[in-house]
Amino acid sequence: MENERRIGVMLVDDHRIMLEGLATLLSIRPEIEIVGMAQTGEEALEQLLDVVPDIILMDIRMPGMGGVQATEAIKTLYPDLIILILTTFDDDEYIIEALCNGASGYLLKDIDGEKLVQSIDEALSGSLLLTGKAAKKLALNLRSQHSRFKQTGGEFELTPRELDLAKLLIEGYNSKEMAEKLFLTQGTVKNYLSDIYAKLGTNDRVKAALLLKRHLSL
Predict the structure, then answer these.
(1) Would the CA dihedral through 170, 173, 174, 180 be positive or negative?
(2) Can you give the residue range of the structural domain that contains 115?
(3) Which of 64, 63, 69, 67 is nearest to 84 (CA)?
(4) What are 102-136's pLDDT values in tens digits?
(5) Structure pTM?
């Protein structure tokens, strides 16, 4: 295990006790390394100048730059960095904003250690961690955007292969799993996905999946 690369995790939460508790909970896992702890979005951005983790567990409500703004800022600078919202607040509006800004999902802080580690693994594999409630709210939030998209003549058509990939995207498959299912290379899958995103007018995976679901009635 010493020679195997561990998953670098950064924790961002304004409550010191929560930070320390999460660090203790995750540090006992041999595959995980805590590479940073911050209490505001500003602190997280500062630490990212020195170390870039594989994944960030981000609280929503913090003084100064909260989780929504921090997610947007971090994803702008580090678009491949995975961010999971971890909060005690089941506040749909904050969560939806964070998802629209690039978060890969959200979890509640009462999650047990085993499930938390599993969620980290799933997020790193490209899965979207959305509850039904959050997905519904996000879809409603995108309704006006989708309507404007149609009104401006932006109606799009997908090729048969793009349609195959769109269905898998909606179901939450990552590019590697799509490639395996469709017997394509990952490079080919990513090229198709880029074309789909361009037609949708977004580079955000969550938005793309929900727009496709509405458009295709799947």
Answers:
(1) negative
(2) 7-137
(3) 67
(4) 888 888 787 788 888 888 988 888 877 765 555 55
(5) 0.62
